[in-house]
Every structure is written in C-alpha cells, then in structure tokens.
Sequence to fold (610 residues):
Amino acid sequence: MCGIIGYVGKNKRAQEVSMDGLKILEYRGYDSAGLAYYAIDDSKLHIVKEKGHVEELEKKLEKHEANLGIGHTRWATNGIADEINSHPHKQGKITIVHNGIFENYEELKKQLINEGIEFKSETDTEVAAALLNKIYNKTNNMEQTLIEFQKQVTGDYALGIINDDDLETLYAIRNESPLFIGLGENENYITSDILAVLKYTSNYTELENGDFAKIKANSIKYFDKNGDEINKETKVSSIKYKDIKKDGFETFMLKEIFEQSKSFNNTVFPYIENGIDSLMKKMPDFSKYDRILILGCGSAMHAGLVGKNLIEGYADIPVDVEIASDFNDKKKIFIDNKTLVIGVSQSGETADTIKALKRAKEKGANALGIINRQGSMMTKIVDYVLYTNSGFEVAVATTKAYSAQIALLSLIALNIANHKNNIDKTELAAILKSIKELPEQIDKLLTEDCCTKYHKIAEKLYDKNNIFFLGRGGIDYSLAMEGSLKLREITYINSSAYSGGELKHGTISLVDDNTPIINMLTDKTVINKMLSNMEETRTRGAKNYLVTTKSLSDKYSPNVEDKIIIDDTHELLQPILAIIPLQMIAYYVSRLRKVNTDKPRNLAKSVTVI
Ligand code: M6R
Fold:
C-alpha cells in the first residue's frame, strides 16, 4: 500500500533518490505517485504528481540540483486515485507525504474550512498539512508544532514533512504506521519501508509511536511525543539490495516460486539441526494451552487452515482458524489465558491481523507470530515470533512465504505431538528424514519437464471464464482454496474452491460441458470419496485435472484430462509439495493472459488499512 521516501543531503539529487525509492516501493501496490523536491538552482519547491505508474512520473521530472525531497506511492483510501489526491500535499508553508489514516480528519476539516482554509483534494492528508501549517503559523517552531499536532489528531500516521522556512531539513513523525531513518554520510533518508533506501544504505534507526525527528544532511535529532530529546539505536538491515533483484527471472513471482527449497531450508533447518532436541528447545512451551486460534488474511489464513489440520491430527489440541477481519467484527470472542493465538503474516504489517492479535491479547491470550519480515509491526505485538526465513518477497501473490508458513505450522504440530508422546521413535526418525529430503523434492517439481507440463495445462485453461478447484478433507480442500486464490488474483479469471463433500449440496449445478476443475488428491483417507466426486463431475461434462501423489497414482487411474504426480513425503510435509503445481499453473495462465503478474490490478503486497 502507500509508501514514503525522503532525502536530505548534498551528495545526490533528491528527486533521483526519491524516484529510486518509489520504484522499490511499487511492489507494495499503489495507484498514483508523487514527489516534492527543493531545487537549489532555481530556489523553488517543485511538486510533481502522476496518476498511474512511477515511470510516468519520472518522465515529468526536470534536471535540477535538489538537496531535499519527499516522495510517495498512494493506494487510494480517502478520495479517488487521481493526480489531485495523490501526495505530496501542500498547505501554506508545509508540504507532506503520509501513510495511514487520520480518523478525525472530517471534524478537523470542517473547523479549518470555517477558519477560511480551502482544500483542493478529498484527502485526510491535505487536512493534516493545513493543521500543521496553522499550528506552525502560531508557534513558528517545528518541534512545538509537531508536539501540538499529535495532541489534535487521532489515527495512524507516518509523515515526511518539508517546511518552506527551512529547506535544509526534513521532518518525520509517526504513530502506528512504520517510519525509518536511513543513515548515510552527509546525507540521510526517511522511508516507510527500509527496502526503499537499501541501494544507498543498510544502516537505519526506527521511530516509535509518538516519536518525531529533525533530519539534516549532517545531523539527526530524535524527540519523544513530549518533545524530550531521545537517542536511537542504529540497526543494520539483514536484507541487502541484491536480494531485491529479479536475478535473471522474468518476474519476481517466478523467482520466488523457485526459491522455495531455499526458503524451506532456511526456515526449518535451524529447528532440527540437532534433531528433535533443537525443535523442543527453540520453540515456546505449548503445554500450558488447551486451545489454539490461528488468525490471518488471504493466503496466510489458508496456511492456517492447513496448519489446523496438521496440528489437530498430530497434537490432539483443538485449533480454530479465523479470518482476522471477521474476528475483529465479532460481537463476542471466546478467549482466555489458556488460548494460544497464532498470527500468520508474511509482511507483519497486515492491519486486520495486527488488530485481531491486539484484541485477543486484551482478553488474556498469549500471541505467537509466524512472520517473514523481521522488525515489522506484528513482531512487536506478539509474545513470541517464529520467523519464516523466506527472504524478501516482492510479488503480490505470495508463494515461498506461504509454503514456509505451512512448514512452521508442521513443526509446531511435531513439537506438541512429541511433547505428548504421540509420535513413536520410528515415525519421528521418518519425519526428520523426510524434512531433509524435501528441498530436493521441491526442486524436482520445478524441472524443465515439469514446467512444460504446467504450461500445457495452462494453455488449456487460460481462455476460460471460470475455473474450479476441488479438494476433500481439511488439507486438500485448504490447498484447493489457496490454488484458487492464486489463480484468480494473478489471472483475473473467476475461480472458486469447493469441498468434494459439498458438491451434491448445491455446487454441482455449476458443472456443465467443459467446466475445468483442478482436483487435489493427496489425502489417502478420502481417496474413494474423491474419486467418486471426480466421476460425478466428469459425467456431467467437466474437464478434470488432477494433482496427486505417486503412491495414489500408482494405485488408481481416474479418467482425467491430465494429471500431475508429486513425490510422496510424510503427511506433515505433503502440502508443501502439493501447492507447487498450483502456483505454477496459476503463473503460466497469468503469463498467457498477459497480466502484470507481479503487480495485479487493485492489489497491494501489504494491506496496511482495515
Ligand atoms: O502479509 P500477509 O501475509 O499478512 O498478507 C496476507 C494477505 O494479504 C496475502 O496473503 C494475500 O492474500 C496475497 N495476495 C495472496 O497471494
């Protein structure tokens, strides 16, 4: 969603640094962009905005020597996506870029209009700029202005601020929305996402809620919300600039699908380096909980559904999964200090999941986060974090983070099962062996031959209007849901997932001649029922495709258009292999339909608004 970048310094052109940052921030999803920079050669503050792509914005930039700049990618919330509503917004002497939402902006706007202020845009951001300008006109002091501003606004915000009276200084302030200061030599940066400055620096500090900063090329002063000066610890980003490159792949999504064996390795191996002992030592003690609640959105929630089935199956503990936004809307929640709440999130920034975790914690639950982005907001809310070490994920459609989330949920199942002596030594040894073999099995599903096969299936699907996914039993159905989401978000083809058991309760009326159905069949306990379901749809005209395991394929040969056979592995790990063909088919359908696969329309990588 929205992104902030800013630069102050004498070494580079502020508008070019800001543009580099905006190009990185694009991955978060946006629909307009803009920047403001102060050019020392004509002593003017230039504001340039564009609805649409950052590349178009770049064409509008002029070659100036500029020492100060702020830039923004906007994902429209208050006000449509157009040039007027895009940031930066200027009122009087104050120009700002803003992430977040000011909750009381309507009230403030009325007040300011009564005082004679005119607004050009529909945004809450312009209201904040006007308020800052009003306070500054009284105080003539930016520190006092920011202290007073915080008292008058409610909501989440991160702001980059330029004041016409001091064009060698950048101001930054935050409440809830993340904001970082990138540290350079004779130059400094601000950003809402540290990736945007990695080209120039890996060193940074982070503002906490209520903090603000006065940033010059050679100095930075940090203040808390009362205006008292504070110190900040310098951190070093673990993600490097080279990590955010496509590395020869045509898209980030393809690169990330191919990185899944590495992502699995990096996520799982630290827990099993000394066998089961390290798994037991490196995870929290789960024995005090009598119930688990998994919260997440989109694919993270789908990973939770797979996890529920694995944990319940092996660890004998009830697990519920709730869509975080629905959980937040519930009148009553049933949670106490014997509930472990697990928040699953790649970005660690998803507003609904963060809100849900806070709500559960208020009721006394302990919270554990399965999170990919180190240092993200969610990592600060939860009591424990288990990181999916998948590395940076750029494509909007998650792949490697999703499979790593399942891997960690499997390890939680194994940990609890082992603690309860639910698994004997032979099975334990078999699981550990399977974990070691899995990276190779993942890569086997991404060979040229396999990709040719996925492509062949994609060619049969890409011109269809509706594609169904069918799975039976908790795990295959959850995988079908994820396959269907992956397909629809990057292809714009309508797609739904159904449980095989539900077919005859309404869904089968949708099946007619040539209805494509991708069937998931990895769970041997449902084989006969699922084979009947496939036959029921086939005899009504469906074109069935099948993803199944080698052992099931050796025993049964259902009548299908095509099938993909995956290696057998232990049940706890099977979903990690099974999802790969679905990711690849969705990927090739997306390419055949010429969709912008990495950045599908209307979507954002991090959904930071509710
Ligand atoms: O960053 P998170 O894992 O919290 O994001 C959750 C969802 O927004 C995300 O999984 C979304 O559904 C993806 N676009 C799916 O590919």
Observations:
- The chain is about 40% helix and 25% strand.
- Residues 468 and 496 are 5 Å apart (CA to CA).
- The pocket of 5-amino-5-deoxy-1-O-phosphono-D-mannitol is lined by residues 297-300, 345-347, 350, 353, 396-398, 485, 489, 606-607 (CB under 6 Å).
